[in-house]
Amino acid sequence: MPKKSIFVVDDEEDILELICHHLTREGFQVTTATNGENAVKAITQKPPDLILLDLMLPGIDGLEVCRILKKENKTADIPIIMLTAKGAESDIITGLELGADDYITKPFSMKVLIARIHAISRRKNRPPMDKNTVIRIHDLMINPGRHEVLIKGKPVEMTFSELRILHLLAGRPGWVMTREQIVDAVRGEDYAVTDRAVDVQIVGIRKKLGARAEYIETVRGVGYRFKE
Q1: What is the 8-class DSSP label of residue 208?
Q2: Conformation bin of residue 198: beta by default, left when phi > 0, alpha when psi is -120 to 50
Q3: d(CA 42, CA 85)
Q4: In the chain, N or C terminus with fewer CB closer than 10 Å?
Q5: Phi, psi (deg, nearest 5) at residue 72
Q6: CATH of span 135-226
Q7: What are 66-103's pLDDT values in tens digits?
Q8: Rounded to an integer, what distance in angstroms lies between the CA atom of residue 143 and that of residue 138?
Q9: CB hemisphere CA count around 2 (13 angstroms)
Q10: Which of 172, 170, 176, 171 is nearest to 102 (CA)?
Q11: What is the three-class DSSP state of 13?
């Protein structure tokens, strides 16, 4: 099988060299760029399997690179992991809403980065989730078609919006989802979900899940994710 290709964009030569070294050892084919303009040109000409994208770049910054790539049919489906400065929450939210798949803050462990890359590769190979797909995770079952949540076979009463949000998160384990993305995913139904109301819904879901509440992780300042 051909090696998976990863394109790394970072203007810090030492970080770039370190990432390339470890990814090559893991068996990936690695290509690099140190600025946004060159990255967009190279990625458009030869799309990789995955992109590691630093947000703080000279010229076109990482967010603009992400925006450009996600608008192009040829590159829109390439997974992007953002490399961000610690505490850049607003940039993280913007990047995720532009279509980035995950983020990792500097300084980071190479083991963590490689684990995130493998996790994204697994997600990419999963078939798309249908709104009525039944999800089973350990002793938790979510059946949106029957508006039913079961724990050890016993029903758990949930509102329609709580069930939709739970199904959305559980159907994308490991994905960080912003509040706005959650709102967008359930918008158009016969109930209203506002940005901050998502937090209230999550509190309600966790209470009803009891010990399984730990499945839903809060990503501080960003949103939520369901444990893989």
Answers
A1: H
A2: alpha
A3: 25
A4: N
A5: -90, 130
A6: 1.10.10.10
A7: 999 999 999 998 999 999 886 677 888 888 888 898 88
A8: 14
A9: 7
A10: 176
A11: helix
